[in-house]
Amino acid sequence: MKILKTTKTLHNNVISLLEFAPEKYEKTVLILGVFHGDEPEGELLINEYLKNIEGKELKNRLLIIPCLNPDGKALNTRQNSNKIDLNRNFPTKNWARTEDAQYFGGEKANSEIETQFVVDVIENCRIDAILTLHTPYKIVNYDGPAKDLAEKISEITGYAVEEDIGYSTPGSFGTYAGKERKIPTITLELPDNEDFPNLWKKNKEIFHFLAQIY
Fold first, then answer.
1. Is 149 inside any structural domain?
2. Within a domain: 174
3. Is the dihedral of CA 80, 157, 201, 144 positive or negative?
4. Is residue 142, in this structure, part of any structural domain at all?
5. CB–CB of 82/48 below 8 Å?
6. Which sign does the torsion angle of CA 205, 46, 104, 136 carry?
7. What is the total count of domains within the chain?
8. pLDDT tens digits for 140-182?
9. 136: cis peptide before it, omega within 30°?
10. Taking the model in full, what pTM does it have?
C-alpha cells in the first residue's frame, strides 16, 4: 500500500488517497466511501476489504478514499463542516446555487477541500472506472458509459440497476465524472438498515471483481 496523497479538513481530520497496485496493471479503479457523513457503511465495507488486500494478487490498480467526509462523519451529518453537500459541489455544467439546506452545494462549485481533493485525483490520474458507496436506496445507479458494469454489480448484489435516481442532482460527482468526463461511474446505494455481516456478504465480491476481473 502507498499513501499517494493526504489533506486536512477544516476540523483537522485527514482525507487519504491509498494506492494498491501490482507492478504492471491493466486498469485503474477509484473507490470512494462516505461522501455523506451520515452514510458510514461504505467506509466499513472498504475497511473490511483492506484487512486482507495485501495478500491478494491484483490485476488492476486500486485508488481508494475510505472516507471523503470525515468532518461530516464526526458530526453525523450529510454535509461537511461548512454545511455543504459535497455531492452537489462539483464543477459541472449544471451546477447551480440552491436554497435547499439539505442539498446546499455551496456559494460556488468546487469550493470545498473535500471536493478539490477528488477533482485533483480525477484530473491527474487516468481512471478507468469509479465506485462510490452511499445509502439508503438499495440500487446500482450509474453515470456515463457504465451500464455493463452496473449490470455486473447488480448480479453480485441483487440490487436493481437504475440510471436515473429519480430527482435532480446538479453539481453531483456522477455528473462530473461519469456524464461529463465519460468515466464509467457507479453510485452503489446500500441499504442502511442491514447488519454488517450480511452487508459484507452481499457486497464483498464487488471488490474482488474490480481488483482482479474487471
1. no
2. yes
3. negative
4. no
5. no
6. positive
7. 1
8. 999 999 999 999 999 999 999 999 877 788 999 999 999 999 9
9. yes
10. 0.96
Specify if 76 maps to a domain: yes
Asked if 72 and 78 count as a contact pair (C-beta separation under 8 A), the reply is yes
Half-sphere exposure of 77 (CA within 13 A, CB side): 15
Of 72, 67, 71, the residue nearest 32 (C-alpha):
67
Listed residue (203, 157, 175) closest to 44, CA to CA: 203
Q: If you ran DSSP here, which 8-state letter would residue 159 be given?
A: P
* Count of residues in the chain: 214
Query: Which CATH number fits the domain that encloses residue 54?
Result: 3.40.630.10
The DSSP secondary structure of 7-61, one letter per residue, reads EE-TTS-EEEEEEE--SS-S-EEEEEE-SSTT-THHHHHHHHHHTTGGGS--SSE
Edge-to-edge strand ranges of the sheet holding 61-65? 2-8, 14-20, 61-65, 28-33, 129-134, 185-189, 139-143, 160-162
- Domain membership of residue 32 as a residue range: 2-134+156-186+194-212
pLDDT at 99: 85
Containing 3, the helix (H) or strand (E) segment is strand 2-8
Cell 452503489 -> residue = 188
Taking residues 93-117, report their average pLDDT: 95
The sign of the CA dihedral 30, 214, 25, 143 is negative
